[in-house]
TrEMBL record:
This is NADH dehydrogenase. It comes from the Bacteria. The keyword Oxidoreductase applies. GO terms for molecular function: NADH dehydrogenase activity. Keywords: FAD, Flavoprotein, NAD, Oxidoreductase. Pfam families: Pyr_redox_2 (PF07992). The lineage of its organism: Bacteria, Bacillati, Actinomycetota, Actinomycetes, Kineosporiales. Belongs to the NADH dehydrogenase family. Residues 9-322 form the FAD/NAD(P)-binding domain. The keyword Protein transport does not apply.
Amino acid sequence: MPGTSSAPRILVVGGGYVGLYTTLQLLKRLQKGEATVTVVEPRAYMTYQPFLPEAAAGSIDPRNVVVPLRRTLKGAEVVVGEVVSVDHAARTARVQPKHGEEYDLAYDVIVMAPGSVARTLPIPGVAERAIGFKTVEEAVFLRDKLLRALDQAEASKDEDFRRRVLTFTFVGGGYAGIEALAELEDLARYVTKSLRTVRQSDVRFVLVEALDRILPEVGPEMGRYAVEELRTRGIEVNLKTTLQSCEGGVVKLSDGQEFESDTIVWTAGVKSHPVLEQTDLPLDERKRLRVGADLRVTTEDGSVVDGAWGAGDACAVPDLTNPGAFCAPNAQHAVREAKQLGDNLVAVLRGGQPTPYRHAYVGSVASLGLHKGVAQVYGVKLKGYPAWLMHRVYHLSRVPTTSRKVGVLLDWTQAAIFRREIVSLSAQSTPFAEFERAAGVKQITASRS
């Protein structure tokens, strides 16, 4: 292995679930001087995505949804930048830092954990009009946009304008889409109680799902219950329906519906990170990194690629509990894969043998808004308040670091006592506007830094 004259250099690409937990496990297991660990991640924090819907709804402070990497990964070097290509034959990764020119970063062992990105389709208008729901920035933006839309509609007598800004369209019936939709509808329902001219019935939420069900992870029965729950609240659930176009904010569906919508949220699946195609590592037909059950990168014939590991959404990890299948791209698998990867990597560095990753899927929980949810865990089906409570307890136990657990618990306590926060901070996108007006600047500049 290159660089064996000194401590092996381990490079972790990505600071999400796999990147964070793999690094934590390495730091826990490695002895001082046994290896160095470098993490390259575009953001200086890891986002706990299951809490994004509650951050959007004002139940959790957005800062408690993210985990600072440098403070959490003491002992590792954290580089805020993006790996844009990997030449594993030369053991170098090309890094684009936040500021400055690209450079090559040498390593001896690489852990590929770049995660996934939104899987978009070439639908007219999607790239220009839609927004995803994978980052805390997107969650905060949607929250502020909803609150701003309610304020604008309250002050306007233009019915066409009110109808457009009060229509929220969600494409995709998986966890991200359903939980975001349900939490934001809950927020709108709460806010309209204090408005004079905007009623809850004026706010329109539309779900578009290509399949005949939503939340497939919780099973058919709980999926049907979720549909009934959403429809009872006035949410329009369109199953076996696809988005045809949204150019100019005009939504056109496959069933012939056509309406204006100022807010279009795209949560119709994910795909492996495109950086994988800029490497010389073996990929499968879906552009996922090929890995074995022990999480070492393998070629198509099963040969191990020395010094390369991978796990999480970007990898095709064999599911040993379901022969022929692969582990689902979710947090439950990612966290467990990461810990196994860390243990295996240390074992191989010390001349030992890696252990195959095996985990039977426990089940799933999903929130449908405050005090509402669905769950199927170990075959037990729950709905309503018990499922919602299980959702909160489970994710509170899984969010990294004690400080974030305490922060989330305090947020929930405050929201229970004083109700949820309904102040929009949309002005933060143009922080110089007030000063520029005072200075007599007519053309407001929104791009100063």
